[in-house]
Amino acid sequence: MAFEEIKENAEELKHEVKNLLDANLKYYKLWGFKILMKSTSAILKVFLLGVMLIIVTVFFSIAAALGIGYWLDNFAYGFLIVGLIYLVTAIVVYKVQDKIVEGPMLSTFSKIFFKKYD
């Protein structure tokens, strides 16, 4: 009789362990989906914001080039000056790119991936 109780308890324990493993698997799938969605939505937001900023920059650049061209009575000089401003800006950004990009990205993704969930 005691052997049957042990056998029943072992079977029940096996069933409970299987339920626990299934629940953990479902939890981690949901957790992975949550992180994937947060990352995807953040990338999409940055992409859309970047596109809008590029459009604004193009219009402001044309306006600035035309304004400088009117001021200098030569549109080519206006566009050349605006182009040189962008060239200098690109060189500066290239020199400090690690400080601008790597730190904030590492911080943001660390918060997402290593956040403790209750």
Which key phrases capture this entry?
mainly alpha; 118 residues
Brief summary:
It is built from three helices and no strands. It is mainly α and 118 residues long. The protein has one domain.
Q: Measure the end-to-end span.
A: 44 Å
What number of domains?
1
Radius of gyration: 29 Å
Q: What is the percent of helical residues?
A: over 70%
State the shape.
Answer: rod-shaped
Beta-strand content: under 5%
> Which whole number gives the mean pLDDT?
87
Secondary-structure-based class equals mainly alpha
DSSP strand count: 0
Question: How does the major sheet shape up?
Answer: none
The secondary-structure element order is HHH
Low-pLDDT stretches are: none
SS element count, helices = 3
Protein name: Competence protein
Keywords: Membrane, Transmembrane, Transmembrane helix
Organism: Flavobacterium suzhouense
Question: Can you describe what's shown?
Answer:
By secondary structure, the chain is mainly α. It has one domain (2-113). Helix content is 92%, strand content 0%. It has helices at residues 2-72, 75-95, 97-113.
Which SSEs are present, and which pair or pack?
Elements: H1 2-72, H2 75-95, H3 97-113
Helix pairs in contact: 1-2
